[in-house]
Write a structure and sequence with these properties.
alpha+beta; Methane Monooxygenase Hydroxylase, Chain G, domain 1; Flavocytochrome C3, Chain A, domain 1; 2 domains; 5-stranded mixed beta sheet; 4-stranded antiparallel beta sheet; 13% strand; globular
Length: 375
């Protein structure tokens, strides 16, 4: 969905797009996390692959294209050990203001650290860089913020149930687990914990129940819907159209957002969704990359629109969501944005965040008996 991203190309938000078409309710779709250090490898699909945060924890330094250690401008105390969102935003702003590297990034540098330590402690990162012709141990390497993890998703309860009977979600398809910002490593914990809970609860939910009737008509209709692309001789090139979507999301719904860009993006996405439905993918269904990409593109368009429209509604900056026109957090916006499909359109609602243990300073001290600040 973004020009520079860490997931492999076939990860197109299929689960969330299917949930949308089925009528599932979504939450926090504006909250998308960018990892600070994705490799820049030209037009290769390897661009966006991550260099782990342990490098910065061990003492890696970040430099802009002018050779300045630019985190001094944004977080002079934590510097390169600032949080993901701060580092990503700072790097993006350096690049956007013309202080980037030749390939549109910034530099990460560990060459001042003991070379043997780097080789031993970050063997995988060293080898990944070498695979693409870079020397992490002895030289600076170009990196960029990289779209990495979606905190938003289908709204679920602690048992992974949704508003749709029989639909359970877990992992990155589910929303609301991480709030506005995810800590490193918690994505795996999320998948393990809620994946297990979803499986257990799915099994419990069908125990003793009869199998529902299967609609052969519905199956044929769905098959015909997705296969109609195969019979077209005319239509746009799906690969070029996906690149257009990625560029649009990177430039207007990316690390740094603004009302003008978001409104333009919503309009452009609406038109792009129509164009995506008319692409051509000639040939048979089997071994047809264009058809696979067409299905990916249509699902990506659904997800992109949910992100853009939710981001437009959150008129503040919070967690991974940064608005250049609203750079501060607003206590009045301390609410979850819920999205409900309405045919091809969508409706939105706001619900105040419920604090059962601890509240942030902006809303004052809670009186809940489990408020950790009273212990």
């Amino acid at each position: 969905m973004y020009r520079i991203s860490s997931p492999s190309l076939e990860k197109a938000g299929d689960g969330m797009a299917m949930g949308f078409r089925a009528g599932a309710k979504f939450v926090d779709m504006e909250m998308l996390q960018f990892h600070p250090t994705g490799l820049l490898v030209g037009n290769s699909v390897a661009t966006g692959g991550l260099l782990e945060e342990g490098l910065r924890g061990a003492g890696a330094r970040l430099f802009n294209g002018l050779g300045e250690r630019y985190m001094q401008r944004y977080d002079p105390q934590k510097m390169e050990r600032a949080t993901r969102d701060v580092i990503s935003r700072s790097s993006y702003l350096e690049i956007a203001t013309g202080r980037g590297t030749p390939h549109g990034g910034v530099y990460i540098d560990v060459s001042h650290l003991d070379h043997g330590f780097v080789e031993r402690s970050f063997r995988g990162m060293v080898e990944r860089c070498r695979d693409y012709g870079f020397d992490l141990v002895h030289d600076r390497v170009e990196v960029s913020p990289s779209a990495h993890y979606h905190m938003g998703g289908i709204a679920m309860d602690v048992d992974c149930r949704t508003n749709l009977e029989g639909l359970f979600v877990a992992g990155e398809d589910g929303g609301g687990v991480h709030g506005a910002n995810r800590l490193g490593g918690n994505g795996v914990a999320d998948s393990l914990v809620y994946g297990g809970r979803a499986g257990d609860n799915m099994a419990d939910s069908i125990t003793g129940r009869d199998l529902p009737a299967i609609s052969e008509t519905q199956i044929r209709e769905l098959g015909a819907k997705w296969a109609q692309l195969l019979g077209r001789d005319a239509g746009e090139n799906v690969f070029k159209l996906r690149r257009e979507l990625e560029d649009l999301m990177w430039e207007k719904v990316g690390v740094v957002r603004h009302d003008t860009d978001l409104r333009a993006a919503v309009d452009e996405l609406s038109a792009l969704k129509v164009r995506a439905a008319k692409v051509r993918a000639p040939g048979e269904a089997s071994s047809n990359p264009a058809w696979n990409e067409a299905l990916n593109l249509m699902n990506l368009c659904v997800n992109a629109e949910m992100v853009a429209r939710s981001a437009l509604l959150r008129t503040e900056s919070r967690g991974a969501h940064f608005r250049q026109d609203y750079p501060a957090s607003d206590p009045a916006c301390l609410k979850n944005i819920y999205l409900t499909p309405a045919g091809e359109d969508m409706t939105f609602g706001f619900q105040p965040v419920k604090f059962t243990r601890m509240a942030p300073p902006e809303v004052g001290v809670t009186t809940h008996e489990n408020d950790l600040r009273h212990h």
